[in-house]
Amino acid sequence: MVRLTKLNSEEIVVNTHQIQTIEIIPESKIVFTNKEFLIVMESADEIIEKIIDFNAKVYDLHSTYTIEKLGFE
Question: Residue 70 to residues 58, 63, 64, 73: CA-CA distances in angstroms?
Answer without folding.
Answer: 18, 11, 10, 8
